[in-house]
Amino acid sequence: MRATSKNTGIGQPVRRREDFRLLTGKGCYSDDFNFPDQVYGVMVRSPHAHATIRSIDTTAAATAPGVLAVLTGRDLLADGLKPIPHSVGTRHPADITLENKDGSPPFIPPHFPMTADEARHCGEIVAMVVATTVAAAKDAAELVAVAYQPLPAVAHALMAVEPGAPRARVDAPSNTSIDAEIGDPAATNAAFANAAHIVKFETWVQRIAGVPMEPRAATGIYDRDTGRYTLYAGIGGAVRPKQDLAKILGVAEDEVRVVMHEVGGNFGTRGSFNPEFALVTWAARRVGRPIKWTCERQEAFLCDYQARDLAVTAELALDSEGKFLAMRGSNIVNSGAYPISYGPLAKGVEIMSSIYHMPAVHFRARAAITNTVPTRPYRSSGRPEVMFVMERLIDRAAKQFGFDRLELRRRNLVPESAMPYRNPFGMVYDSGAYHQVMERVVALGDWSGFPARRAEARKRGKYRGIGVANYVDTATGTPRERAEVTVLPDQVVEVVVGTVSNGQGHETSFAQLIGEWLGVPIDTVRLVTGDTDRVSVGGGSHSGRALRLASIVMLNASRDVIAKGFKIASHVLEASTNDLEFVDGQFMIKGTDRSLGIFEVAAAALRRNNLPDDLRGPLSAESDETVNIASFPYGCHVCEVEVDPETGVVELARYTAVDDVGRAVNPMIVHGQIHGGITQGVGQAMSEHCFYDRETGQLLSGSLMDYAMPRADTLPFFATELSEIPTPTHPLGIRPAGEGGTTPALGVVINAIVDALGEFGVTHIEMPATPERVWRATHRTSRV
In which order are the strands placed within the sheet that holds 650-660? Predict the structure, then answer.
């Protein structure tokens, strides 16, 4: 099977088909859905991080102009709505299992769309106002009188798990949701007892917000004639939200439809079901009109799911030659007020050893409940945090015990000859040329030329540093995916698939695959996603699963379409299938000029009456696969920074990356995803921080005036290169590419900053490395 055009097939840097539509305002995002007789919802949110709700008086609000309804948590319970069915402990078969070490079940309290008795984080919904205009709903929301009894709050995971800490909820036996142990404590302790060197590192990887370009919006509709609910909202997928909404409403799945078109950014923060989505559909039934809710940016900081927030203590044991012997420590993730997913905790701890050979490990893994917004998986869920820890440990060991940073890594990287390699936590890395990739990025980043650049910077009064960081990512996600491929006579190939695009360029890269396999121009491929009336199965887009799994089911379906096409062409051309070949979209009789194009075959299947019954009808096929094998993208990044000691300002001077993606369907899109991923990692390393007051639980970074995002003028041009060594666990050799830019960025940036500040005696700096924090570090210590 060959592509019609060599310029659009697999491996070609095709410009994104969707960009013209999106950049000229012709897209359809969540807030673009509007319906006749539509009204508007506004949420009343708790100003307290923790408080008992003594009473809610809705009288004044209910009689305000334009108000149609004022709903509370008691109304929600009276109507029998259920909690949001977060799959907290659900895991992919390839991931490790986290279980309480004492054998008890984890504490997973229910998360209702609206609370009735207790506010457990600032911004939790306590009432909903529905009115004919947004302004009327906002005015009425001010009239809802809530009597709160404030309670002690706890906002930080380390404080939450301390004995005697305030309870984050009145019904909690403790603030620990799960307390697991992974690894072999006896072997690990024995290795530490015999170690020549031990390095210890304690850190807190701060909480961040997703801040997608498009704030969330949702419109709920209830059809009284059919008893059917429809939700229009941008989410990480369509099928799972449909299932969740049906459970919350207590109805059959076929009574619910979920529709989405464009989604303006996700990164994981949209990946779980949000309370507002249930409220607009429920309220639409009560009011009898479509209800729309649009999140404002400041509200998003209060209510969008957040990410990261991991406290780590880790130790690394080495022999006298620098070989790693063992690793041990403790990881505590801040789950917020409601545990939504153990994914960041499990996916982090299972690869704590990264791509280095580590004979023994032992880690304690805990999730703490606090009075903050819930956290959930975010770009490269849990892995940037632990790669940061591993790479900082290595740099600290090199500095403390006199090893060369590069040589220490070379000495401990898992060799290609050891593949497949089972890491000490039980994860099986499929393949990897780790040494090769690291040596390539060191050369590409001109590591050997750094001393001259450092000396030149010193002449200008700047302190220049360089850092390196290896990484591995674990891509699993929902294992089941389905595709339907139909060739239509009117020059269209329709592909129905369960993934959705959150900006990754699926319309282009998926079309390139279909174009190559079916030999059709990519402009003829029409992707159908995000509507549960069309999509019955699919896991959405998360954990690097979209292209990886969609390509498998699309390939299977395309092969079946061609197989069926051979049989149809055989009848129409009156030739044996053995005498036919399929080349560039044409079923040809070998050695002749007689042929039928694939669209002609599709037309024949629909119009000819002399075909066997099993060949009549649409030229289509479907594939439904469950893939229980993980994928392990990897790579190495090098970063250089310059620090101004007078102001503490850090300039990112150079950034070089080599990432192995197995096989790039569209290198241009992959490079773009890596650039975006690096930017997100740099943002966390240098500026981003969801800052909660530790005593009150109040969010102090609730707007873009307080939450510092990375900007184009603070970033260099990235030098990125792709390594394409196909993985043996995928039919096309594909590894995911969307998370690799983020995964090593935290570690490599901080390694470079610490290297720059070495002359000041600085051995570590916590994230975010803001100018103030850097300035204080340079003035706190004396120069060496």
Answer: 463-472, 634-643, 650-660, 719-723
Tell me: the pLDDT tens digits for 592-607?
Answer: 999 999 999 999 999 9
**Best CA proximity match to 562, nearest among 511, 612, 602, 617:** 602
Q: Name the pairing type of β-strands 492-497 and 580-583.
A: unpaired
Which strand (E) or helix (H) includes residue 489? none
Nearest to 708 by CA among 693, 723, 690, 734: 690
* Gap between the terminal Cα atoms of the chain: 65
Q: How many angstroms separate the Cα of 509 from the Cα of each of 267, 302, 333, 665, 670? A: 19, 35, 35, 6, 10
DSSP alpha helix (H) spans, 95-184: 134-141, 157-160
Using an 8 Å Cβ cutoff, are 233 and 277 in contact? yes
Q: Can you tell me the distance from the alpha carbon of 769 to that of 750, in angstroms, rounded to the nearest whole number?
A: 8
Distance CA 314, CA 363 (A): 9
Number of neighbouring beta carbons within 10 Å of residue 286: 15
Record the tokens describing residue 93, joined without a space: 């078969």
Give the model's confidence band at 2: pLDDT under 50 very low, under 70 low, under 90 confident, else very high.
very low
- Per-residue tokens: 592: 């002749």
Instruction: Give the pLDDT of residue 313.
Output: 98
Average pLDDT, the chain: 96
Q: 408-430 as b/e, with b when 16 or more CB fall inside 10 Å?
A: bbebbbbeeeeeebebbbebebb
Q: Are 749 and 681 in contact (CB under 8 A)?
A: yes
**% of the chain with per-residue pLDDT over 70:** 99
Give me 156's structure tokens. Answer: 């930080």
Contact criterion met (CB below 8 Å) for 259 and 237: no
What whole-number distance in Å separates Cα of residue 493 and Cα of residue 513? 12
Q: Give dist(CA 597, CA 565) in Å, integer.
A: 10
Strands 291-294 and 39-45: parallel
How do strand 291-294 and strand 256-259 relate by DSSP bridges?
unpaired
